[in-house]
Amino acid sequence: MNFLSFDSSSGAITGVGYTPDGTIPDGHIECTQAQYENPQAWQVVNGAVVAAPAPTAAQLLADAQTAQMATLTSDYQSAICADIQYTSAGGVTQTFQADAGSANILSQQLDVYVTAGAPLPSGYAWTAKDNTQVPFTVADLKGLAAAIGARGAEAFFHLQTQKAAVRAATTINKVQSITW
Questions:
Q1: What does the alpha-carbon distance between residue 137 and residue 135 come to, in Å, rounded to a whole number?
Q2: 24-49: pLDDT as tens digits
Q3: Among residues 78, 56, 59, which one has the least CA distance to residue 179?
């Protein structure tokens, strides 16, 4: 037997369930297969399952804005973690990983060789994406970190601009046209 879970104060459906023995848990209500398969289209009013009112234009716009903000935030996360090109003091241009794990390792290296002032070991190198060992100096560690940080800041400001445009958009089409 299918049943709906609902918020007793608003009547909003909060979940669905099934009981093979036909017992409905306390605080839940029996429902049809159609109601079970599409619970967001229903609500509970005075103990009965009824069709939920159609969303308003304002709610549809708000839902589109929320979805677009999530898409933009995901795109931002991808942008700040994307590989980055950097040219070392020795003139070697390579692509380096800049995901969270790589940035964390870079930060640890900066702590050791810049903040703590430990000398770089002889033959110190940073590994490029293709596993090439690129000779690095302390200035290179700082430079790569600065390049990653600058790109992150630029992406953050771009995200803020795009989110403001989404909030200002007055139609769903306009909301959906605002992309990374």
A1: 7
A2: 999 999 999 999 999 989 999 999 99
A3: 78
